[in-house]
From TrEMBL:
Residues 82-422 form the Glycoside hydrolase family 3 N-terminal domain. It comes from the Bacteria. One of its GO terms (biological process) is glucan catabolic process. InterPro entries: Cellulose_Degrad_GH3 (IPR051915), GH (IPR017853), Glyco_hydro_3_C_sf (IPR036881), Glyco_hydro_3_N (IPR001764), Glyco_hydro_3_N_sf (IPR036962). Belongs to the glycosyl hydrolase 3 family. It catalyses: Hydrolysis of terminal, non-reducing beta-D-glucosyl residues with release of beta-D-glucose. Keywords: Glycosidase, Hydrolase, Signal. GO terms for molecular function: beta-glucosidase activity. Its EC number is 3.2.1.21. This is beta-glucosidase. Residues 604-640 are annotated as: Disordered.
Length: 640
């Protein structure tokens, strides 16, 4: 029934004595104002009214956080539109109303596509709007399945850059801008921040953390939640719900092997180190993050309430979720599992090889529950405390678990209430649509990018500046490696092809890595292994060539703590970046901008020192080459 016709019917049925609220949406198409459709009603009343109209099948769908598919890709990679038919089936046949989007298109196109999803949702039996989530979109680092970039959003440093500045106000400001950009395109949930304590230097997820100090991680992650949700008292109707992750101990994995992979499914901590990893989440929880995502890994070693932790991943672990998170920490929000914990891990997942590499079809992360069937995994997760299962799109195992008496409908209702409440808090039942033209104006605006550019510059760390090499006056001849010549010319330098013809050299490089597991889907994409520069590395050869003739400035992009021992003697100046454009680095070189960052972790001297440290403890082991907090502050040069 159209809105006007429905409103007229409503007035007639009440004899004209009352009228529906402005903008009333007849979501269940019955011509009456149901309590859950009334924007004037308290949220609890709206939730209970809607819950009472739902079937068990509809409730089961609410416990799934699916993926908005694109043509030919059920996991949403590639393409520039959603698969409308497949999306309609997820919404109306499987009753799923929470989805991650991986679409990478212009802001106006993304807004239009998300409006299509909401139109399909509105046509359902109860008209429950879709909650649309995303992995981070505002940073330089992009890893398939974990983050993305290049889609029109303002570009800021990676999270470590904010940690280098250590300024909660800057984090809040970034998050507030990101909030506005997400809501402009119809995204309502950020699958971030990572409040993981980064204690193992080889870990591939290091760059998305706030570093290795539990108190600093807590403070900055809390500011992130506050900025995205538009306050510290829970998400506001114009806010973006955050899902802080990964509860808890994810950053302590031996050798840095990541929990997305079968070979990285275990982490060992002590009681004292476990307490530090928990401490890193404190302010995110105090700021009432709408969601928490448990870690993939099986935590070994510490005790909870005096009992050893069951050797299953956190998504199946009642001690970690119901006991520690909901009990000791009094958390009342949504618990969303990480992706694919209920899927099987076949041979191509456990031990892929060149003939049988792991593809998306063989991704499963049911650590500790590998031999259980899917019904048992869902039941175990629900009983542990999970409200939604990430990356799942089939409610049948949940219904089977209820039918077998493994899970009660009362327990299902608890999770449905949390999912529905968040939708009401976000204002989605009253208006889930966005202005596509406004999205084009708001997202990636000149003003927002100017602020992002300023943070790219400020977040750099100056570690060495021998013989006052910086600042370098424009007009000098420069030899480049890993830097766009056009950016150097724009900064006022004369670019030459031979370092012997130069006045100085600028080399951009990054923390070394190895691809130790090339046939694993995530292992093939993650930076693992060594952190040290070696003579055979092409970037080291470039530094060697340049430093033989001219003062050489080396800027190292650090997604993990680099070992600088091999290149330090050849570098007159050392700069650390955590996501910065060539223009941003060149502005620091010229003194137009000042590097204000401090290392948010220590830098080891050798791989032997890395191997000697404990993966679960921050900045431990032998004395570092540079301690956490290292950094030189220069006075900014006057502008022309």
């Amino acid at each position: 029934m159209h809105r006007i016709a429905a409103a007229a019917f409503f007035a007639l049925t009440l004899g004209g004595a009352a009228s529906p609220p402005k903008g009333w949406r007849d979501l269940n198409h019955n011509g009456r104002l149901d309590r859950y459709e009334d924007s004037r009603a308290p949220i609890n009343a709206r939730v209970e009214n809607l819950l009472g109209q739902m079937t068990l099948t509809e409730k089961a769908g609410m416990l799934l956080h699916g993926t908005l598919p694109t043509p030919g890709s059920p996991i949403g990679f590639g393409g520039n539109i959603y698969d409308a038919d497949a999306t309609a089936k997820l919404l109306n046949d499987r009753h799923i109303s929470s989805f991650i989007t991986r679409l990478v298109v212009s802001p106006a196109e993304l807004a239009a596509q998300n409006n299509v999803v909401q139109k399909l949702a509105e046509a359902g039996r109860l008209g429950i709007p879709a909650t649309i989530s995303t992995d981070p979109r505002h940073h330089f680092q992009a890893t398939l399945g974990a983050s993305t970039t290049g889609d029109g959003f303002s570009l800021w440093p990676d999270t470590l850059g904010f940690a280098a500045l250590g300024d909660a106000g800057t984090v809040r400001r970034f998050a507030d801008i990101a909030r506005q950009e997400y809501r402009a395109v119809g995204i309502h949930m950020a699958l971030s921040p990572q409040a993981d304590l980064a204690t193992e230097p080889r870990w591939p997820r290091f760059a998305a953390t706030f570093g290795s100090d539990p108190a600093e991680v807590s403070r900055l992650a809390g500011a992130y939640v506050e900025g995205f949700q538009h306050g510290r008292s829970g998400v506001k109707p114009d806010g973006v719900a955050t899902v802080v992750k990964h509860w808890v101990g994810y950053g302590a994995e031996p050798e840095g092997f990541d929990g997305h992979n079968y070979y990285g499914r275990n982490a060992t901590l002590s009681d004292s180190s476990f307490a530090q990893h928990i401490r890193a989440f404190d302010d995110s929880l105090a700021a009432r993050s709408s969601g928490v995502m448990p870690t993939y890994v099986i935590v070994h070693g510490p005790k909870i309430a005096g009992q050893p932790i069951e050797p299953v991943a956190a998504g199946f672990n009642k001690q970690m979720l119901t006991g520690l998170l909901r009990g000791q920490k009094q958390y009342r929000g949504l618990i969303v599992s990480d992706w694919s914990i209920t899927r099987d891990c076949p041979q191509a997942c456990m031990a892929p090889d060149a003939a049988n590499p792991q593809t998306p079809a063989s991704i499963g992360t049911p650590w500790g529950m590998e031999t259980a069937d899917k019904t048992t995994r869902f039941a175990k997760g629900i009983e542990a405390g999970i409200d939604q299962f990430g990356g799942a799109d089939d409610p049948a195992p949940i219904l089977d678990a209820v039918a077998k008496g493994l899970v009660s409908e009362k327990r299902i209702d608890e999770s449905v209430r949390r999912v529905l409440r968040l939708k009401f808090e976000l204002g989605l039942f009253d208006n889930p649509y966005v202005d596509e033209a406004a999205a084009a104006r708001i997202v990636g605006s000149r003003e927002a990018q100017a602020e992002g550019d300023a943070v790219q510059r400020a977040s750099q760390v100056l570690l060495r500046n021998d013989k006052a090499t910086l600042p370098v006056a424009p007009g000098k001849r420069i030899w480049l490696h890993g830097v766009d010549a056009a950016a150097a010319r724009a900064a006022g330098f004369v670019v030459v092809d031979d370092p012997q013809q130069a006045d100085f050299a600028l080399v951009r490089t990054a923390t070394p890595f190895e691809t130790l597991h090339p046939y694993h889907f995530f292992g093939a994409r993650q930076h693992e292994g060594r952190l040290d520069f070696r003579a055979a590395d092409k970037d080291v050869q470039a530094i060697t060539r340049a430093s033989a003739h001219v003062p050489t400035i080396v800027a190292v992009e650090m997604d993990r703590p680099a070992i600088l021992t091999a290149i330090e003697p050849m570098a007159r100046t050392l700069i650390v970046t955590f996501g910065a454009s060539d223009a941003a680095v060149l502005d620091v070189v010229t003194g137009r901008a000042t590097a204000q960052g401090r290392l948010p972790f220590s830098l080891p001297r050798s791989m032997a020192d890395v191997e000697a440290q404990s993966p679960d403890l921050p900045d431990d082991g032998p004395p570092p080459a540079y301690p956490r907090g290292a950094g030189i502050l220069l006075k900014a040069a006057s502008r022309d």
